[in-house]
C-alpha cells in the first residue's frame, strides 16, 4: 500500500476521532444546559395539555405520560383537544401494523396515553392480530391503562392458547379491572378451558364475594372431575392437543389446586379448616386445611394439630404451624408443654420440643423459678435437637451468673463435645462459658482456595503456549528451508520479522474491525433499549407478576469496610418484590459483627430446602423488622460456594448475584429486570454495567456524587470497563452470543441454575472449582438450553449500573488479571466441545472461537509482535509503511473504539462532569501506548503460571467505600 494512501487514511481516522471527541463534549455541554430547560419544558407542556392549548405531538404525548404517573387528570376532553390529537392518533394506529417490533410497542404505549375510544379500538384489533407476545404485553398494558370494560372480552379471549409467560402477565392486567370483570366471572364459571380456570381462581383471590367463594370451594370439592373434564376437552380437540401435553396440563392443574387451597386457607379459614378437608385423601387439600386451622389459634385447633404432629408426611409444616400459633397466642404454650410431658415416644417428643424452640429465652429464665424441672427437660430436648442458635446468642449476652451456671450444667448433660452440636457450641460460645462446661474452644477453620492442577488442562495450556510461540517460527523455517544454508541468519531474522509484522497488522486489523462491527450492534441495541425504557411506566413495572421476583445474593469475605454501606444501598432499591441475602463466607474481620450491630440481627432457626451441596452453614441471622434481609454465616469456601448457599436459602424466581463491596443505583435492578418484558423467549440470564466507584462520594449506601477515579490506575480501568460493557456486552447480545455476565451484577433464573448444578465447586456434581464462575455459568446454561433445543436469549442492560471498587495498585491489578485469564482458559477447556460445533449456533461458531483466538491465544501473539517491532527498529527494517500500518491497526483504531464507548455511555445519561470526561478521553487516547501492552503481558504470564505454579489466587487491596 502506498505511503500517501496510508497517510490519508490516518488523517481521515484522526478526523473521525476529533469528531467523536467533539461530539462527546458538545453532548455534555448541551446536556448540562438542557437539564433545567428540559424540566421546565416538560412542565410547560403538561400545563398546556391540561389547558388544551398546546399543539399535540409525540413529545407532548410523552409529557402527558409523565403527568399521568403523578396526577389524575379529568376524563372530560373538549372537542378542541380531541381534534388536535386526532392526526397523531391515526398515525399511531397505523404504526401498530409496522413490521418493526419496537415501533409497534411505541405505538401501543402512545395510544394508551391518548386513551380515547378510537385508541382503544385500534389496540383491541391489534391485539387480535399480533403474534409477538412481547408486543402483546405493551398492547395489553395500554388497554389496562385505559381500563374500559369493553376491552375485557378481547383480553379474556387472548388468554386462550397463549404461553405461560404471557398468560401470567395478561391475567395480572385483567385483574386490574377489578369488579368490572365480575359479570364475565359469572358467565365463565363452568368453563373447562385451563387458561380461563386460572384467571377465575386468581380473580377469586382478589375479589371476595359469595360467587368467588363458591367457585373456589366447588373447584376444590370437584377437583378430580374437573381435571378429567379438562383432559377430555383437550383430547377431543386435536388442534389444542398439539399445543398442550396431557402431563403438562396435570402439572398446571396441581398448581391451580395449590393456589385455590391457599386462597381458601387464607381467606375462608373457618370454613376450610374442618371436615371433609382435614381428612381429605388429596395431600394438597389436607395440608392447606391444616394451615387454615392454624390461622385460628384456639385451644381446640392447637390440640388438633398436636394430635397430627406424628404424621411424617407433614412433620415440618405442622411444626411451623404450631410455632406460628404460639407466636399469635402465647397463652396457649401450656398446652404444648403438657403434651411434651405426656408424650413417651422419643421422636414425637423431639418434634414438640422443636415447636417450643423459638421460646428458648422464656425457658432459660424459668430455670430460676419453680418451673425449673419442666424448663430443664424442654431445653435439654431442644439442645439435643441441635436448635441452639438462639441459645448461643442468649448465653453470649447473658451476665447473670446463676443462669450461666444452670445453663452450663444443662449443656454438659445434653451435649457430646465432639458431636455436631458440640462443635457448633465450641466455635461460637464465649470461652468463659465453655470452660464451665469443660469444653475446649474451636477456632473456625479458614479454608485457603488452592488451585488444583488438572493434568489434562495443564497439558492443553502448555501445548497452546508452545504452538502460539513456536508455530509461526516453525512455519517460517519450513517455508524457507531451502535458504537455511545459503542465507545469513541476519537476513533470515530480517525476513522473519517482516513477515511476522505483516501477520500482526492483519491480526490487529481483523480484531479492530470486528470490534467496530460490535460497536455498530451496540449502538443499535442502545437505541432500542432507550426507546423502550421510556415507554415503561411504573404502573406497568410494579404491577404484580409483570417482572420476576428476585433474591439478591451478596457473598462477602473480609468486607468490613464497605459491607454496611452496601447493604443499606441494596435495601433501598426501587423494585416491587425482592429479598437480600448476604453470605458471610467465613470472614476473618468484623464483617459479620458489623452487620449484626448495624441491622440488629438475631440468629434464628431458618428452614430452607438444600438443592445444591455447599460448605456448612454456621448460622442464619434475621430481624423481623427487616423481613427482606437474611444474613448467612458459613464456613469459608469461596464465592461460588457462597452463591450456591444463597441460592438454597432464596425463595424467589430469579436471583441476582452481586459483589458485597458494590453499590447498585436505586433503579438498576428495575431497569435490568424490565428487559424480560421485551422478550417472549426465555431469558435465563441478564447482566448490567460495572463502573468504578473509586473517588465517588457515598452516603448511607447511596452515591450522591459521581467522579472519575483520581487514581491513574483506577482511571485506566474505568475506560477499560466502559469499553468492555458498552461495546462488548451490548454487541454480543445483539447477535445472541453473550458469554459473559459479570459476577458483580448478574441476574439468573433460579430453577435453570439449580438444573445445571449451580456454580462450579468441588462439592458439586462436577466436583470442580473455577475462578471464572460468572462466565462459566453463562456458558453452561447456554450450552444446556441449546442441547435442549430451547429458544432463549441472554440480555444486557445498557443503563443498569453497579458501582464497585477497582484495584488502585499494580500488584492487585496484576493478581486480578492473572485470575481472569486463568479462569478464561479453564472455561474454554472445560467447554471445548462447543468450539466449532453447529449444535451450539453462534456461540459455537462465533463467540467461543473469538475468545479462543483473540482472548486466549491473542495476547501471546501480541507480545511476540511488540517484541519483534522493537527488534525491527534495532535492525533498521521498520519502514514507514509498516510503521503506519501498525499505528493504524494497533493504536488508532483502538483509540476510536475507546472514544466511541465513552460516547455510547454518555448518550442517554450524564454520568461524568466535563472535567472528568476530559480525563477519561485523555486516558482513552494514551492507554494504547503501554498499558494495553502491559495487560497483555500479564495475561500471558497468567497462563504460564498455570503450568509452573500452584497456590492461592492472590489478593486485592481495597480501601472500602
Automatic annotation (TrEMBL):
Protein name listed in UniProt: Glycosyltransferase
- Segments spanning the bilayer are 6-26, 457-478, 504-523, 861-878, 884-905
Highest taxon listed in the record's lineage: Bacteria
Q: Which Gene3D superfamilies match?
A: Leucine-rich Repeat Variant, Spore Coat Polysaccharide Biosynthesis Protein SpsA, Chain A
GO molecular function of the protein, one example? glycosyltransferase activity
Q: Which UniProt keywords apply?
A: Glycosyltransferase, Membrane, Transferase, Transmembrane, Transmembrane helix
InterPro entries per the UniProt record, alphabetical: ARM-like, ARM-type_fold, Glyco_trans_2-like, Nucleotide-diphossugar_trans, PBS_lyase_HEAT
Family under the similarity heading? Belongs to the glycosyltransferase 2 family.
Matching SMART domains? EZ_HEAT
Q: Which residues form the Glycosyltransferase 2-like domain?
A: 551-675
Q: What is the lineage of its organism?
A: Bacteria, Bacillati, Chloroflexota, Anaerolineae, Anaerolineales
Coiled coil: which residue ranges?
none
Amino acid at each position: 500500500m502506498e505511503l500517501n494512501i496510508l497517510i490519508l487514511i490516518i488523517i481521515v481516522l484522526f478526523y473521525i476521532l476529533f469528531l467523536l471527541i467533539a461530539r462527546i463534549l458538545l453532548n455534555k455541554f448541551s446536556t448540562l444546559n438542557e437539564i433545567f430547560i428540559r424540566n421546565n419544558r416538560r412542565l410547560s407542556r403538561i400545563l398546556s395539555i391540561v389547558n388544551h392549548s398546546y399543539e399535540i405531538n409525540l413529545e407532548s404525548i410523552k409529557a402527558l405520560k409523565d403527568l399521568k404517573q403523578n396526577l389524575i387528570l379529568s376524563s372530560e376532553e373538549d372537542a378542541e383537544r380531541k381534534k388536535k390529537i386526532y392526526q397523531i392518533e391515526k398515525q399511531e394506529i397505523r404504526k401498530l401494523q409496522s413490521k418493526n417490533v419496537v415501533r409497534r410497542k411505541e405505538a401501543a404505549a402512545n395510544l394508551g396515553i391518548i386513551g380515547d375510544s378510537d385508541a382503544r379500538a385500534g389496540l383491541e384489533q391489534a391485539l387480535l392480530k399480533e403474534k409477538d407476545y412481547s408486543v402483546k404485553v405493551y398492547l395489553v398494558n395500554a388497554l389496562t391503562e385505559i381500563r374500559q370494560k369493553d376491552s375485557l372480552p378481547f383480553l379474556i379471549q387472548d388468554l386462550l392458547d397463549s404461553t405461560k409467560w404471557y398468560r401470567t402477565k395478561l391475567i395480572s392486567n385483567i385483574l386490574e379491572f377489578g369488579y368490572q370483570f365480575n359479570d364475565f366471572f359469572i358467565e365463565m364459571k363452568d368453563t373447562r378451558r385451563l387458561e380461563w380456570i386460572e384467571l377465575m381462581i386468581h380473580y377469586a383471590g382478589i375479589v371476595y364475594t359469595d360467587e368467588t367463594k363458591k367457585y373456589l370451594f366447588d373447584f376444590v370439592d370437584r377437583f378430580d372431575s374437573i381435571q378429567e373434564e379438562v383432559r377430555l376437552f383437550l383430547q377431543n380437540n386435536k388442534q389444542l392437543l398439539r399445543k398442550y401435553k396431557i402431563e403438562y396440563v396435570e402439572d398446571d392443574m396441581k398448581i391451580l389446586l395449590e393456589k385455590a387451597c391457599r386462597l381458601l386457607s387464607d381467606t375462608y379459614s373457618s370454613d376450610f379448616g374442618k371436615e371433609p378437608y382435614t381428612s381429605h385423601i388429596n395431600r394438597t387439600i389436607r395440608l392447606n386445611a391444616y394451615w387454615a386451622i392454624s390461622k385460628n389459634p384456639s385451644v381446640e385447633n392447637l390440640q388438633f394439630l398436636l394430635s397430627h404432629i406424628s404424621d411424617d408426611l407433614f412433620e415440618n409444616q405442622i411444626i411451623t404451624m404450631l410455632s406460628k400459633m404460639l407466636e399469635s397466642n402465647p397463652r396457649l404454650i401450656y398446652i404444648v408443654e403438657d403434651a411434651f410431658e405426656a408424650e413417651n415416644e422419643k421422636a414425637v417428643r423431639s418434634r414438640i420440643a422443636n415447636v417450643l424452640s423459638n421460646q428458648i429465652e422464656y425457658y432459660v429464665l424459668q430455670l430460676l423459678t419453680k418451673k425449673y424441672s419442666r424448663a430443664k427437660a424442654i431445653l435439654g430436648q431442644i439442645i439435643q435437637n441441635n436448635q441452639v442458635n438462639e441459645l448461643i446468642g442468649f448465653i453470649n449476652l447473658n451476665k447473670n451468673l446463676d443462669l450461666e451456671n444452670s445453663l452450663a450444667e444443662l449443656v454438659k448433660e445434653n451435649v457430646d463435645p465432639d458431636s455436631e452440636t458440640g462443635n457448633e457450641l465450641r466455635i461460637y460460645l464465649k470461652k468463659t462459658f465453655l470452660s464451665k462446661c469443660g469444653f475446649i474452644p474451636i477456632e473456625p477453620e479458614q479454608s485457603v482456595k488452592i488451585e488444583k492442577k488438572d493434568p489434562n488442562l495443564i497439558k492443553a495450556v502448555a501445548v497452546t503456549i508452545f504452538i502460539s510461540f513456536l508455530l509461526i517460527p516453525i512455519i517460517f523455517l519450513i517455508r524457507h528451508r531451502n535458504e537455511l544454508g545459503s542465507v545469513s541468519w541476519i537476513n533470515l531474522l530480517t525476513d522473519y520479522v517482516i513477515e511476522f509484522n505483516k501477520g500482526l497488522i492483519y491480526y490487529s486489523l481483523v480484531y479492530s474491525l470486528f470490534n467496530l462491527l460490535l460497536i455498530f450492534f451496540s449502538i443499535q441495541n442502545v437505541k432500542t433499549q432507550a426507546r423502550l425504557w421510556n415507554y415503561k411506566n411504573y404502573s406497568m413495572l410494579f404491577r404484580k407478576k409483570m417482572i420476576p421476583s428476585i433474591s439478591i445474593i451478596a457473598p462477602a469475605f473480609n468486607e468490613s469496610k464497605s459491607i454496611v454501606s452496601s447493604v443499606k444501598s441494596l435495601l433501598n432499591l426501587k423494585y416491587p418484590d425482592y429479598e437480600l441475602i448476604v453470605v458471610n463466607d467465613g470472614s476473618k474481620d468484623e464483617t459479620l459483627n458489623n452487620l449484626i450491630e448495624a441491622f440488629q440481627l438475631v440468629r434464628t432457626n431458618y428452614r430452607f430446602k438444600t438443592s445444591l451441596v455447599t460448605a456448612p452453614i454456621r448460622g442464619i441471622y434475621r430481624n423481623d423488622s427487616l423481613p427482606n434481609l437474611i444474613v448467612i454465616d458459613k464456613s469459608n469456601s469461596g464465592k461460588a460456594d457462597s452463591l450456591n448457599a444463597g441460592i438454597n436459602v432464596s425463595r424467589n424466581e430469579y436471583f441476582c448475584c452481586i459483589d458485597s463491596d458494590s453499590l447498585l443505583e436505586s433503579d438498576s435492578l428495575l431497569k435490568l429486570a424490565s428487559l424480560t418484558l421485551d422478550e417472549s423467549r426465555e431469558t435465563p440470564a441478564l447482566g448490567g454495567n460495572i463502573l468504578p466507584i473509586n473517588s465517588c462520594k457515598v452516603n448511607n449506601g447511596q452515591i450522591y456524587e459521581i467522579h472519575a477515579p483520581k487514581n491513574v490506575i483506577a482511571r485506566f480501568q474505568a475506560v477499560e470497563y466502559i469499553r468492555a460493557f458498552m461495546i462488548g456486552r451490548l454487541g454480543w447480545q445483539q447477535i445472541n452470543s453473550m458469554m459473559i455476565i459479570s459476577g458483580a451484577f448478574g441476574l439468573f433464573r433460579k430453577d435453570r441454575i439449580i438444573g445445571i448444578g449451580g456454580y462450579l465447586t468441588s462439592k458439586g456434581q462436577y466436583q470442580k472449582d473455577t475462578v471464572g464462575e460468572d462466565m462459566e455459568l453463562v456458558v453452561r446454561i447456554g450450552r444446556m438450553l441449546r442441547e435442549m433445543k430451547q429458544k432463549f436469549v441472554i440480555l444486557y442492560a445498557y443503563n443498569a449500573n453497579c458501582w464497585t471498587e477497582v484495584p488502585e495498585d499494580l500488584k492487585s491489578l496484576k493478581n486480578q488479571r492473572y485470575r481472569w485469564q486463568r479462569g478464561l482458559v479453564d472455561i474454554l477447556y472445560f467447554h471445548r466441545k462447543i468450539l466449532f460445533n453447529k449444535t451450539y449456533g453462534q456461540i459455537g461458531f462465533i463467540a467461543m472461537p473469538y475468545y479462543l483466538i483473540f482472548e486466549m491465544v491473542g495476547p501471546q501473539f501480541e507480545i511476540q509482535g511488540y517484541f519483534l517491532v522493537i527488534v525491527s527498529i534495532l535492525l533498521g527494517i521498520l519502514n514507514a509503511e509498516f510503521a503506519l500500518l501498525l499505528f493504524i491497526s494497533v493504536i488508532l483504531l483502538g483509540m476510536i473504539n475507546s472514544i466511541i464507548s465513552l460516547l455510547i455511555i454518555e448518550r442517554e445519561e450524564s454520568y461524568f462532569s466535563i472535567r472528568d470526561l476530559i480525563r477519561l478521553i485523555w486516558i482513552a487516547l494514551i492507554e494504547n501506548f503501554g498499558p494495553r501492552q502491559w495487560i497483555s503481558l500479564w495475561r500471558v504470564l497468567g497462563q504460564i503460571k498455570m503450568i509452573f505454579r500452584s497456590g492461592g489466587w492472590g489478593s486485592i487491596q481495597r480501601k472500602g467505600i
